[in-house]
Amino acid sequence: GCRVDGYASDCTRTFATGALPEDLARAYEVCLEAQLAADRERGELRAGTRDLAALRLERCLEAIEGATGDLLEVGCGAGRYTRAFLHYRPDLTVSGCDISQVALDEARSADTTARIDYRIGDALNLPYEDNTFDIVVLFDVFEHVTDVGKAAGEVPRVLRPGGVFHCFVPCEGNKRTLFSLFRNSKRVPIHRWKREQIGHIQILTTRQMQRILEGRGLHVVDTTFSFHLLGQVHDLFDYWRRDTLSRNDIPAWRKTLTRAISRAVFIPTWRLAYSGTAWITRVAVEPADASTVYA
Length: 295
Fold this sequence. Notes:
The chain is of the alpha/beta class. It is about 45% helix and about 15% strand. It is built from ten helices and nine strands. The strands form two sheets. Strands 4-3-2-5-6-1-7 form a seven-stranded parallel sheet, sandwiched between helices. It has a two-stranded antiparallel ribbon with strand order 8-9. Strand 3 (about 95-100), helix 4 (about 100-110) and strand 4 (about 115-120) form a beta-alpha-beta unit. Helix 1 crosses helix 7 (about 190-200), helix 7 (about 190-200) packs across helix 9 (about 230-245) and helix 9 (about 230-245) packs antiparallel against helix 10 (about 250-285). The longest helix is centred in the C-terminal third of the chain and has 32 residues, at about 250-285. The two termini are about 20 Å apart.
């Protein structure tokens, strides 16, 4: 079975694969440093903390409930999710792979149990034999890879028959989202900001992802959405801030003003984005067909 969690239109773990232009390689390095610093500050990931990272974890734990055996997280970064999986599901054998040796070194040092197996690996060519895992999960990976179909095709290869795949995918190409509204905007070039700041090189849609996954033999049994309007507003201000602060032609006073405006927006939108997502999912679900539910 395959479950997809995406936003109706998040931001993101860095996971670069394939040959990339030099500017994107630099963007990945910068974003990785920022991600590692943020993970250290946040501490261990736990469910019930009413933020979007916790929501992703909660949905994933729900999706893999009842599954047993070996779990792999593709693009595990510094291991924040892999450690959470082991915390909530100590019955599982947990593995993680990432293309960044720096991130994996951090993951190993943070694993006080020494039970998680970490390997260097590319999403386009996972370093595992066929039929190795009962569960494969990934968060914010497909938007970073050079070939989404090839990365998706690696999942059923390493999954055992009857296994479970759960993924979180930013569907920033979906219609009726702020990402779609500003797709060709010169004043608010959100897609350029995301490409330059965190290496989003794919703009995906829900239907496109379903076609790709099912074309690789993965039957999509459930689809949920998060990151509704307030989350998208948060994203727009976040990447406007990142772009402004990274530019040398912006005066210091404007950067100070940008920080202040962004902080004022972040405080309500991040928490309310979680609350809005939880309410919409709980109250306004509509069946799309026999196998897929859209929230």
